[in-house]
TrEMBL record:
Gene3D superfamilies the UniProt entry points to: Chloramphenicol acetyltransferase-like domain
Entry similarity comment: Belongs to the plant acyltransferase family.
Leader peptide range in chain numbering: none
Protein name: Omega-hydroxypalmitate O-feruloyl transferase
Keyword ATP-binding on entry: no
PANTHER family assigned: FATTY ALCOHOL:CAFFEOYL-COA ACYLTRANSFERASE, TRICHOTHECENE 3-O-ACETYLTRANSFERASE
Pfam family, one: Transferase
Origin superkingdom: Eukaryota
Keyword tags: Acyltransferase, Transferase
One GO MF term attached to the UniProt entry: acyltransferase activity, transferring groups other than amino-acyl groups
Keyword Transmembrane helix: no
Length: 454
C-alpha cells in the first residue's frame, strides 16, 4: 500500500490484507556442481574483512514473461549456466568451516551450490512492491536450508527459480556476505547472466586470491576503531522495540528532493559567517539527515551516545588498489559518534560533516589498521545504539539479464538487523534513492513527519 506517496510495509499488528497473496510450492533441493574439475580438499582463505560480516543476504530478481514456451527453459538454462560459472567461482561450491587459526574459512569440497525449482499460484504482479522488505511473502522466493542452526550449516549460496502463472519468473538468492560484498556479488550475478546468454568469456573474471589482504606481521592497528565500541543504551530503546510492532517504510528521494537535502546540509555552518558553505556528496548529506532524523524519532536522551556505521569501498583506496574482479569483501566500516543532544542541537550540516570526516578517514593505512585490529583482538563491530547504513545505490542490478531481459523488479527480502538502513537506487534512470528502514510504530510516525518536511 501507499501512504503519502511512501511505500509502507505492514507490521505484525497490521491487517493481513496489506500483504500480497503469494503461495509457493518448492521442489526438492538439488546440488549444482561446477561443470569442470575444480580444486578440492583444501581450505580457501577468507580475509579479516570477510570475517565480520558472515550474514546471509537475500535478494530477489523478477522477470516478466517473454512469450512462447521459453519459460520452460528457465530453470534448466540457469542451472546449466550456474554450473559453468562455478568453474570460475568454485569456492561457492564449497562449505564454510573453521581454520586452525579459529577463523572462518571455506572447505573446497566441490559439492555444489543449492538449487531449487518452485511454482507460485499467482501472477508476478501479485508479488507486490520490492522497494520495501516483506519477509513473510518474499521469503517464499528464497530457499533457506531447513533446520540450519548456525552459519556453518548454511551453504555459501542457494538459488531458487520460481515460475509464475503469467509466464514470468523470479530468481531468489541467499548468499553469505563473507563470500563477497555488494560489488563482488553483482559481478558474480552478472557473470552468471552473461554465461547464460552464451558468452564465451567473462567480462570481469574473478580474482580469487584474498591473501592480498592478509594482516601485517606483527599486526599494527594505528587507529582507535570506534566501530567496535559498545555503547550503553541509556535511553532504553530496547524496551521501545520490544513493546511495539516493527514497521518498514521506503522513502523515495527524487533528484529534486536530493538537491534540497544537499542544500539543507550545506546551509549550516560551523559558527563562522566568513567560511563558505561546505559541499557534501549526496551520500554524506542524506546520511547526516537520516542519522539525525532517526535519533529524534526514537526520542533518544540528550546524553545518549549514538554511533553511525557505514561501509566504504576500499578497492581503489588500497595502495596498490585491489585487482579488478576481486572476489571478496573490499569494504571497510568507518564510523562517527555523537550524543543525541549534539546531533539535535546543531543543523544537519553538523551530522553531514561528521559523515564526511568518517569517509575521509578511510585511507590505505586506516584499512590496513582495521585488518590488523581484527587480527589482534578478534573484535566484532557492535550494533548497540548504532545506525548502520548500507548503500546499494551504485550496484548494477540491471545487468542481471539471463536471456529474458533485465529484471523488472529487484530488491532485498528483508533487512538483516533492526539497526540497518538501506539506500537503494530507484527508477529507470537510477537518479532517485529509496531509503529503506524499520522502526517501532511510534518512532516511524515521527520519522515520517520529519521526512514530510523535506
Amino acid at each position: 500500500m501507499k501512504e503519502n506517496g511512501v511505500a509502507v510495509a505492514a507490521g505484525a499488528g497490521e491487517k493481513a490484507a496489506a500483504q500480497p497473496h503469494l503461495t509457493v510450492k518448492r521442489g526438492e533441493a538439488t546440488l549444482v556442481k561446477p561443470a569442470e574439475p575444480t580444486p578440492t580438499g583444501e581450505q580457501y582463505y577468507l580475509s579479516n574483512l570477510d570475517q565480520n560480516i558472515a550474514v546471509i543476504v537475500q535478494t530477489v530478481y523478477c522477470y516478466k514473461a517473454s512469450g512462447g514456451d521459453k519459460q520452460d527453459d528457465v530453470a534448466a538454462a540457469l542451472r546449466d549456466a550456474l554450473a559453468r560459472v562455478l568453474v570460475h567461482y568454485h569456492p561457492l561450491a564449497g562449505r564454510l568451516g573453521i581454520s586452525p587459526e579459529m577463523k572462518l574459512t571455506v572447505e573446497l569440497t566441490g559439492e555444489g551450490a543449492v538449487f531449487v525449482e518452485a511454482d507460485a499460484d499467482c501472477d508476478l504482479a501479485d508479488v507486490g512492491d520490492l522497494t520495501k522488505p516483506d519477509p513473510a511473502a518474499l521469503g517464499q522466493l528464497v530457499f533457506s536450508v531447513p533446520g540450519a542452526k548456525h552459519i556453518l550449516e548454511m551453504p555459501p549460496m542457494t538459488a531458487q527459480v520460481t515460475r509464475f502463472r503469467c509466464g514470468g519468473f523470479a530468481l531468489g538468492l541467499a548468499m553469505n556476505h563473507c563470500m563477497f560484498d555488494g560489488i563482488g556479488a553483482m559481478e558474480f550475478v552478472n557473470s552468471w547472466a552473461e554465461t547464460a546468454r552464451g558468452a564465451a568469456h567473462l567480462t570481469v573474471p574473478p580474482f580469487l586470491d584474498r591473501t592480498v589482504l592478509k594482516a601485517r606481521d606483527p599486526p599494527a592497528h594505528t587507529f582507535p576503531h570506534h566501530e567496535f565500541a559498545e555503547i550503553p543504551d541509556v535511553s532504553d530503546t530496547a524496551a521501545l522495540y520490544a513493546s511495539q510492532d516493527l514497521l518498514y517504510r521506503s522513502f523515495c528521494f527524487d533528484p529534486d528532493r536530493l538537491e534540497r537535502v544537499r542544500s539543507l546540509a550545506g546551509a549550516g555552518d560551523d559558527g563562522d559567517d566568513h567560511l563558505p558553505p561546505r559541499r557534501f556528496t549526496t551520500f554524506e548529506a542524506l546520511s547526516g539527515l537520516v542519522w539525525r532524523a532517526r535519533t529524534k524519532a526514537l526520542g533518544l536522551a540528550p546524553d545518549q551516545r549514538t554511533k553511525l556505521l557505514f561501509a566504504v569501498d576500499g578497492r581503489r583506496r588500497f595502495s596498490p588498489p585491489l585487482p579488478p574482479g576481486y572476489f571478496g569483501n573490499g569494504i571497510v566500516l568507518t564510523n562517527a559518534i555523537a550524543t543525541a543532544g549534539e546531533l539535535l542541537s546543531a543543523p544537519v550540516s553538523r551530522a553531514a560533516g561528521m559523515v564526511q570526516e568518517a569517509v575521509r578517514m578511510v585511507t590505505d593505512e586506516y584499512m590496513r589498521s582495521a585488518v590488523d585490529y581484527f587480527e589482534a583482538t578478534r573484535a566484532r563491530p557492535s550494533l548497540a545504539s548504532t545506525l548502520l547504513i548500507t548503500t546499494w545505490s551504485r550496484l548494477e542490478f540491471h545487468g542481471a539479464d539471463f536471456g529474458w531481459g533485465e529484471p523488472v523488479m529487484s530488491g532485498p527480502v528483508t533487512l538483516p538487523e533492526k539497526e540497518v538502513i538501506l539506500f537503494l537506487a530507484h527508477g529507470k534512470e537510477r537518479k532517485s534513492i529509496n531509503v529503506l528502514l524499520g522502526l517501532p510504530a511510534t518512532a516511524m510516525d515521527a520519522f515520517q513527519e520529519l521526512m514530510d518536511e523535506i
